[in-house]
Design brief:
With 241 residues, the protein is an alpha/beta fold. It contains 10 helices and 6 strands. The chain folds into 2 domains: 34 residues, no CATH class; 190 residues, Rossmann fold. It is globular.
Length: 241
């Protein structure tokens, strides 16, 4: 049955009162069946927010004392969501079951008695444009940015570096992030069995040169990572350094 055929009540954003769209709600929650989505839609006790108000609402959490904010950026299929789970849970049960991030996924974890909010930002083209356009909602209060690149997908090197440059060559975004920001670039999917292969070594060399050629106003580190060699020490290093 199509969404248009459903006799659904109108829902509005609890904050700005703009009308919400049931089809968009289902698209952002693909794990839900249509019947479950309808049950939630009709539940008057649930708060519904538009994307802009949701970001503002979640962002307020980050002003809690001693709560650090980590942004994870990159292209689709670069491994951002897997890294988010590894940082939060320290293990990854079934990598194949992970779905691409739609919009923003915010996960919270504790490390060394400190609280950290990990923002996994969707990497699809519409989302990438949105994060730059809504920079004043996304980038404030960030302590660290982790930029993830799939080291095996050389066809995307130019476009992912272009996006990287659009962020870190933007004076407005860099001013929002502040001079104390810590930036970590991950050459991800450097799996143990190919880590020292000529192809991977060449890709690492190419990407390193491209990144070093950008006038980045922050200190940054470059690391090679893989879900198959990720361990708590790497998680601690990424979240603490």
């Amino acid at each position: 049955m199509s969404y248009k055929q459903e006799n659904l009540k109108k829902r509005v954003c609890w904050k700005c009162k703009n009308q919400l769209n049931f089809k968009h709600f289902c698209g952002s929650n693909k794990s839900l069946s249509l019947e479950r989505a309808k049950d939630l839609w009709f539940n008057s006790n649930l708060e519904f927010f538009c994307c802009k108000c949701y970001i503002e609402r979640e962002g307020k959490i980050l002003h809690v004392s001693e709560l650090k904010k980590v942004l994870i950026l990159g292209f689709p299929n670069s491994g951002k969501t897997a890294i988010t789970h590894l940082l939060k849970d320290r293990y990854l049960e079934d990598p194949e079951s992970l779905l691409p991030t739609r919009g923003i996924s915010i996960q919270f974890c504790l490390i060394n008695n400190g609280r950290i909010a990990i923002w996994d930002l969707g990497g699809a083209s519409t989302y990438r444009r949105r994060w730059i356009e809504r920079r004043e909602l996304i980038f404030p209060e960030s302590n660290k940015v982790i930029y993830v690149i799939d080291i095996q997908d050389s066809l995307l090197f130019n476009v992912t570096i272009k996006y990287f440059s659009e962020i870190f060559n933007s004076r407005e975004i860099c001013d929002i992030l502040g001079p104390e920001l810590k930036l970590h670039v991950l050459f991800h999917k450097t799996d143990p069995d190919i880590r020292n292969s000529p192809t991977i070594n060449k890709n690492v060399e190419i990407l390193t040169q491209k990144i070093n050629s950008i006038n980045i106003p922050f200190k940054y580190e470059i690391s090679k990572t893989s879900i198959y060699s990720f361990n708590p020490n790497i998680s601690d290093s990424l979240l603490n350094s």
